[in-house]
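User: New here, please read:
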Amino acid sequence: MHSGRNKGDTRTRVVILTADPAFDASARETFGASAAIDLAVVSGSLAVAGDTLPVDGATVVVVDFDAASAEEMAALARLMTRVGTWPPVIAVTQKFDQDVARTLLQMHIADFLVKPVAPVDLVRACARVATAPGGETTDSQIYTFLPAVGGAGVTTLAVQTAMLLLNSGGPRAKPSTCLVDLDFQHGAVADYLDLEPRLNLAEIEPRPDRLDRQLLEVMLSHHASGLAVVAAPNRPAEMRSFDPDVVTRLLDLVSSHFEYVVIDMPRTWFSWTDSVLLGSNKLFIVSETTVPALRHAKQLVAAVKERLADGPQAQIIVNRFEQRMFSAGLRRSDIESALGQAFAAAIPNDYALVREAIDRGVPLDDVKPGNKITAQLKKLVLDDLARPPANANKPLPLMGRLKLSAAR
């Protein structure tokens, strides 16, 4: 039991910090009437009162602050360092844009709301992030696949990786796994698994904060294997760049409710791409076995390292690799020499198998159990599960369980 709670007190303790009289009054009216809520409202700015905010024993902390103020941001960073992984903190801001999102991604922020905040949205947010006192949160592991060139086979590798992770616990203890298709223009995950894409972006985009677990469940597609899939209907004639809030909110919920998340990324770099890559535990750049593709993959690794210094180390998967005797093609030793430490694996080529699986809308193992593509992915993905993830010691950030470095 957390310190600060009286023995036998089973009420939910909500601590709110705000300097806004209107938000103060709304919060007191929202929570004050319930005998099950132990409400503590601290009046004042985060910069002044944040260091002494009484968070011990809280079930959830709500911080109303000025995201445009460097002083307030620094105070929030200090609060997150003090809080650690408990209790969950909800940020309420007047200003919320891409820069704010990236900053909050570097902190242990469980959720966010943008003013004006409806009482029902505040209650839902608190209920969403709260767990039983003393309960531990479970970090989801995020595997992201990014193409170096078009047609590199990213979707096939993402689907198979998701299936491997889903079955990593055996038939009786399948870990919850979700495959997310973020290629909103040309995504093929739903087609590869013969599923109906149910993600309605038009409903989410006007109010990303409305997306909760119930709405997400409506927009999930479910494969017979038990794999959950987030995919939107293709819009090949529309080149749209969605507000980063939409993608951030979506991944926030997904990563909060699944042990493993596999993300199929588009080749185009959008305003939200940085945030997704930053939140990944494993980042695989997928290349073909050609000199131009390998060159692009290596350039992409360098670009990711330059842009996202605190992000995961990008690794290159060379797909459709064939090593034939007496062939003038690229040898594995050539690839390893060219890519250096960024080289992760060479996936064997079996075009006939992949084509049949795609046409039937099934995973590769349903067509040919124990095939060489799945065998190589097992070595890359499942063997790694026995080792601590790259970001294992980093605190929880905005997108649910995505791990990033703590703000300094």
Q: What stands out?
A: The chain has a mean pLDDT of 80. The radius of gyration is 23 Å. The chain has two domains: 12-129, 141-385.
